[in-house]
Design goal:
Layout (H helix, E strand, L loop, with lengths): L2 E2 H8 L2 E3 L5 E2 L1 E2 L9 E4 L6 H4 L6 E5 L11 E5 L2 H16 L5 E2 L4 E2 L4 E2 L4 E2 L4 E2 L4 E2 L4 E2 L4 E2 L4 E2 L4 E2 L4 E2 L4 E2 L4 E2 L4 E4 L4 E3 L5 E3 L5 E4 L4 E2 L4 E3 L5 E4 L4 E2 L4 E2 L4 E2 L4 E2 L4 E2 L4 E2 L4 E2 L4 E2 L4 E2 L4 E2 L4 E2 L9 E4 L2 E3 H12 L1 H20 L1
Parallel strand pairs: 4-5, 5-6, 6-7, 8-11, 9-12, 10-13, 11-14, 12-15, 13-16, 14-17, 15-18, 16-19, 17-20, 18-21, 19-24, 20-25, 21-26, 24-27, 25-28, 26-29, 27-30, 28-31, 29-32, 30-33, 31-34, 32-35, 33-36, 34-37, 35-38, 37-39
Antiparallel strand pairs: 1-3, 2-7, 22-23, 39-40
Length: 346
Amino acid sequence: MEFTVRQIAHLLGGEIKGNPDLLISSIAKIQEGFEGAISFLSNPKYETYIYETQASAVVVSKKFEAKKEISATLILVEDPYTAISSLLDEYNRMRKVQKTGIEQPCFISPNAQIGENVYVGAFSYIGQNARIGNNVKIYPQCYIGDHVSIDDDSILYAGVKIYAHSQIGKGCTLHSGVVIGSDGFGFAPQNDGTYKNVPQVGNVILEDNVDIGANTVVDCATLGSTVIEKGVKLDNLIQIAHNVRIGENTVIAAQTGISGSSVIGKNCIIAGQVGIVGHLNIANRTMIAAQSGVTKDTKKEGIAIQGAPAFEHKESLKAYAVYKRLPELQKKIDQIEEKITELTKK
């Protein structure tokens, strides 16, 4: 597939600085650009590459000011990262084979409702009273339990498992190995040291446009629902426990674990390997740094926290600065104690 710079600029709503008739057939990183490719510059850290790249065109910010001559044609946009994301969406849509139909062997319950333009891959299972919306893509070896609903335009990649009564909204994407609705971790300790299983009879609700990365697990509620609100983006290898609620447009990076009944606010950013204990409330727009351990509520919106236990980012940096100096401070304290001992003897 080939497109002119003019066509791409029109798609992105950008302005052209250079040759609008150049042909573009591929997308490449700016440091690996080649003739016929388009790239982008969003992070100033990579600015040096724009003067060296062999890419035919580069998407840049309208605020970008070149310090040297640039051989590539430029497409000027408000936000290069968002623009290239839109371009990748279009590129991905055009190169994909739009699969439809039901492959065999697979099992679909006779009373399941299947919408129009649906794809069901081989060795998939769709249970009783399941409802599959229009344009849903279910890749091979997926399990859809009884009474599950999957709304229009959602995609389940190979090996996704959806337990009974779960609800998946419109436009959701679940990558391979995702498990939705597995039992929450509920066990009652007994007098003899054993644990009695507490039945988990709730479900999971994913609202619209939720993306979930490979091998992430969202447990069902003990009672009620575990809820992932619209626009949430979860990375790979995340554990969401029973009765958790994650607010809309929150993003969470890999290897994070959220314990039962915690409520995460809207538009939060949670970095990798964060641990959040149960029954907490995290305020809207909270930012949590990587490897933090969150043990108490955050009530003020829009703050950044880090550390284990986590507290406000600026205070954490100050504390860490002191922590690094502890050996030096200990040495000074020992010297002071020696002098005090000498003075006391005198």
